[in-house]
Amino acid sequence: MNTYEPPIFELSSPGKCGVALPEVDVPASELPASLLRQDDLDGMPELSEPEVVRHFTRISQRNFCIDTGMYPLGSCTMKYNPKLNEETARLPAFAAVHPLQDPSLAQGILRLMAELQRDLAEISGFDAVSLQPAAGAQGELTGALVFRAYHLDRGDPERTEILVPDAAHGTNPATAAMTGFTVIEVKSDARGNVDLDDLKRHLSPRTAGMMLTNPNTLGLFEEEVEDVSRLVHEAGGLMYCDGANFNAILGVVKPAALGFDFMHYNLHKTFSTPHGGGGPGSGAVGCTALLAPFLPGPRVREVTLEPGEDRALDRTETRYELFMPPRSIGRVKVFYGNVGMLVRAWTYLRLLGKAGLRQVAETSVLNANYLRVQLGDLYPPAVDRICMHEVVLKGQLDGVTDIRTLDIAKRLIDYHFHPPTIYFPLIVPEALMIEPTETESRRSLDGFVEAMREIAREARETPDLLHAAPTTTPVRRLDEVGAARQPVLCYQQEQGCF
Ligand SMILES: Cc1ncc(COP(=O)(O)O)c(C=O)c1O
């Protein structure tokens, strides 16, 4: 099969046209000269309509996506995004509303945002929510800025350290460092929890707070989380919850009840809005009343107007208005955040209801444990205990020395599965971090198990198949370091960019 798909410019033939319109039979109207382009369109591709459609359809099929197969990317929660979300996000009253429209004419979307703030607060046990941040990592940045604003506001500028477990996602230490904090690493113990003795050693009057993911990045519930929160609070610090793994505890545990002061929600994971290359994200944040005055804004609030307060009213009316929290760190995103994502998350919450949310958690945990049990005899678990929504295995097959996790991951592509997250968390050698998510059926889980078991057999009997993988993709193994360090971002570099 010829897998090469040239750029559209190379498919161009001079004079070809995509549409054939009838002769103009109305008088031409002159446009002002200032609106007319001065240059011609040299260099634009010239193709027929079917050529254009086929080119873009072909390249669209070269992406692996959740709509074509299982995507068990640990920590990233690549779950299925219901199509109903897309329907509601495209409703003209949401899609066509302009961010500069007067709030009195945008009451529908403001009400949706107020309801989403309320629902997220209720699900997590927090008092206030801001929908501004555009990703989990930006939610973390927001949290670190809020922590600093809070300590400065109390007249305590010496709190310059943020504690981060050694298993943490890279965005946690990166965020803390970016906001000017010193990052202090805390060790995990043999059961995969925060090592309490190591934590105690690092707590001091310099502690501004701790960033903790729960369930953590080993896919395990932090068994001592209440003690961790207590110790950090006793030292005068604040507790940040990285909510990337919230789907594992939805409707079962409220992070605020575990002692957290602040958290981000990845709406583009837990609440099924598209994730990855698929579009913008949303990393809404929630917090306790203590930190609410520092949240970024604008936030939305509901106000009740009585007839006497507004002469146009003959009865009590509810309105939604924008406001900045009194000691806000300011805006972290233009306007109101990625509003299209908020509509999708709101829809998902309405779709599931309270019982459905709990079922998300139960199914995600069941699915991950199913894989743990089905694969644990071949691929040793990083920590041998019941996991939450994801399981971390090791690509170290008994008696096989020349196969690495990378080979296993690449071979999975030939079996039409997206590889799991690999080599993370960093503390697990040859890590294979598998998150099936709650949206996979028993049948697709069994297909994944079969592929993984088959790959283990190949690793022993025909290891070259793994070394050569993937063999079914348009490109084989890429120079990933080169792609990151020396990217070629410009087509036909020597002739200038289009
Ligand atoms: C544990 C954890 N924290 C934070 C993030 C960052 O979230 P985002 O990708 O939305 O910036 C991720 C992303 O995968 C994550 O898994």
Mean pLDDT: 93
> Into which percent range does the helicity of residues fall?
25-40%
Strand order of the largest sheet: 1-7-6-5-4-2-3
Question: Would you report the number of β strands?
Answer: 12
CATH architecture of the largest domain: 3-Layer(aba) Sandwich
Largest sheet: 7 strands, mixed
CATH homologous superfamily placement of the largest domain: Type I PLP-dependent aspartate aminotransferase-like (Major domain)
**In CATH, what is the class of the largest domain?**
Alpha Beta
Which strand-content bin applies to the residues? 5-15%
The radius of gyration computed from the alpha-carbon positions, rounded to a whole number of angstroms, is 26 Å
Distinct small molecules: pyridoxal-5'-phosphate
Question: Per the principal axes of the C-alpha atoms, what is the gross shape?
Answer: globular
Spans of at least 5 consecutive residues whose pLDDT stays below 50 are none
Instruction: Indicate the structural class.
Output: alpha/beta
CATH topology of the largest domain: Aspartate Aminotransferase, domain 2
Please report the distance between the alpha carbons of the first and last residues. 30 Å
Please, how many domains? 2
**Total number of helices:** 13
